[in-house]
Amino acid sequence: MEDFLQTLEIFFNFGLPLLILMVAYFVGSTIEKRHFKNICEREDDLHGFPVVSFDTMPEDWNVSSCNMVTGSIVISLDYFKRVIAGLRGLIGGRIKTYEPLLERARREALLRMTESAREQGYDAVFNVRLETSRLANARRDGKGTAGVEMLAFGTAVKFASRFG
Q: Residue 51 has what DSSP assignment?
């Protein structure tokens, strides 16, 4: 009976937290993969909609109206990425664990901006810019949620006639 209680104590002290971490890791990975799949589908849907970073409009665009459009997203940093980044911070170098997070944020912000332009009846977006900001921990004890905000903005234009 004493052996059973020791085994149970070991499980609750080490096994259960490890099990919870593993489940959280796989759930997070699944959510991230679904988000990437959704992004790819929406990008395919918007294929052919001009979105360019030129700061001046091409001369052959005959425009009847324009407006600023934006798209933003806030993505939180998960526990695993923070731990790995913290370890990487000790020795320096590229933090590969954050790259998918930033890629998702960038692509999602651009999609939201482009979808907004299309929903408003615009034909293209130029002078596209991206801004990134880190959202600091919400509480002083450092246990609040941290994340990254990505903002995409540009000038949406409606063509009077397609070209010329």
A: B
Q: Which residues of 33-59 are buried (b: 16+ CB within 10 A; e: fewer)?
A: eeeeeebeeeeeeeeeeebeeeeeeee
Question: Global pTM?
Answer: 0.79
Q: What is the pLDDT along the chain (164 residues), one digit of tens a residue?
A: 777 777 777 777 777 778 887 887 788 889 889 999 999 999 999 999 999 999 888 888 889 999 999 999 998 777 667 677 677 777 877 777 778 888 999 999 999 999 999 999 999 999 999 999 887 665 555 555 667 899 999 999 999 965 54
- In words, the CATH class of domain 50-161 is alpha beta
User: Is residue 20 classed exposed, middle or buried when 0-12, 13-18 and 19+ CB atoms within 10 A define those classes?
Assistant: exposed
Domain spans, the chain = 1-45, 50-161
**CB-CB neighbours of 16 under 10 Å:** 11
